[in-house]
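B., you asked whether I could sanity-check this one before it goes into the benchmark set. Here's the sequence:
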Amino acid sequence: MTAPTPAALLGRMVEEVFNEPDAERRAAVVAEVFAEDVVFTDPGAVVTGRVALEAAITGLLAQGPGFVFSPAGPFRGVGGLGSRPWRLGPPGGDPVLAGLDVVEVVDGRIARLWTMLDG
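And here's what the prediction gave me:
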């Protein structure tokens, strides 16, 4: 079986984790997509581990109920590194936030995730 690519993992991360309102379904995908000791860095914090990542995502989702993340450009990557720009906002509406996610994939899972915000 071939290990998932950074592009595939980024796609699942957005659709099945950051856009998933159900905490149980989100946790199941986090366990599949992220390394146990994942490190997530954004402008507000650095968290380590799946449990801390899930808590951070739950907090982010609570700030914009009903908002969705959508790709804002093509995937770019090399080897185990990948990035994709994104937008956040109401479905079909103007974005309220935009940024770039960068991932490092190790052994078929996201080991590190950096989120950079535009502006």
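One thing to flag: Strands lie at 34-42, 45-48, 68-71, 76-78, 81-89, 97-106, 109-117. Otherwise nothing jumped out at me.
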